[in-house]
Amino acid sequence: MTRPLANFDGYVIDAAQYAKWDRSVFKEMRDGGVTCVNATIVYWESARETLSEIGKWNRLFEQNSDLIFLARTADDIRNAKLIGKTAITFAFQHCSPIEEDIDLVEIMHTLGVRFMQLSYNNQSLCAAGCYEKEDPGITRFGRQVIKEMNRVGMVVDMSHSGERSTFHAIELSERPITITHANPKSWQPALRNKSDDLLKALSESGGMLGFSMYPFHLRNGPECSLSDFCQMIAKTAELMGVGKIGIGSDLVQGHGNEVVEWMRNGRWSKEMDFGEGSSDNAGWPSPVKWFSSNRDFKNLAIGLTQVGFTQDDVKKIMGENWLNFFETSFESI
User: Fold this and answer.
1) Nearest 5 degrees, angle CA 157-CA 99-CA 214?
2) CA neighbours closer than 13 Å in the CB half-sphere of residue 292
3) Which of 48, 82, 175, 281 could cysteine-pair with 275, CB 3.0–4.6 Å?
4) Residue pLDDT, tens place only, 279-317
5) Measured between alpha carbons, how far is 29 from 128 in angstroms, rounded to an integer?
6) Whether the Cβ atoms of residue 47 and residue 101 lie closer than 8 Å to each other
């Protein structure tokens, strides 16, 4: 008999969120039983601007210590579950915070950063983005960055990177990499979704995929059904194995369109970048009906059960797989 979700007692770990962070969001995390959120803290920001963002987070931790704290290890996340708080890990969605200084990788790790994307849609100093027509793979600097990230315990994330660059990162990295928030391109051919060949290579190398609920990357957009989404997860589990998949919701809360313009345009363009190539994507999409806040993870667990996953497998997908990945990824070598 399937356990009612009201009694779901597993880890809930989300590998990708970006919000206008405040106490109301942190309360939603507690209400939703969320154990850990990998929070995007910057996109195109410089090192100095990133330090200011970390400073803002330090204040949030101080002012909301009853709800959240900074996690540096897998044990911190286990402790969050025990004490009923939400652990926060820091993520960069682009390599701009390390500028062209290899020493900044370790410095940012010391400050709590545990994930960094090597590129965000565009060609970067490290790798090609998924919107580039040409993808030459990992650059000379990118090779050194991957090596240093491996050494200190910062996870290589290729969610917004091109296919060749991602294959190259898998090949070069001595530790498993991740795609924290994307879906199979065979299910929905968005530019940022990933091919089955790439997902298979990711799994075989020990890497992890986090499924995204961002509507532009879903079949039928905001009208995507919970059943269709969970059936996609079930099919991907057959390809990658149930131990290599998790959730990276890409949940965004509280931001106006000026923030999505910053995400897409940064300082590199005077023209609006419409993301997937349509002017219909100029602003934030409406969320799917079954997932619009941290309180809605229960719906996902129900949906996974309804498409045939066992209780143990639901627990793996909802959080245990990410916890196991963190265990071997966050420590220096």
Assistant:
1) 35
2) 10
3) 281
4) 456 677 899 999 999 999 999 999 999 999 999 999 999
5) 34
6) yes
Is 113 among the domain residues? yes
Q: What six digits make up the tokens of 239?
A: 């390809």
Q: Are 317 and 233 in contact (CB under 8 A)?
A: yes
**Tally of structural domains, the chain:** 1
The answer to whether residues 321 and 246 touch, using CB atoms and an 8 Å cutoff, is yes
pTM (predicted TM-score): 0.95
Q: What residue type is assigned to position 277 of the chain? A: G
Residue 275 maps to a domain: yes
DSSP symbols for 6-43: GG--S--EEEEEEE---HHHHHHHHHTT--EEEEEEES
Strands 86-92 and 68-70: parallel
Q: Is residue 1 part of a domain?
A: no
Helix (H) or strand (E) holding 296: none
pLDDT in the model for residue 260 = 81
Supply the CATH number for residue 61's domain: 3.20.20.140
> For residue range 190-224, what is the model confidence (pLDDT) as tens digits?
999 999 999 999 999 999 999 999 999 999 999 99
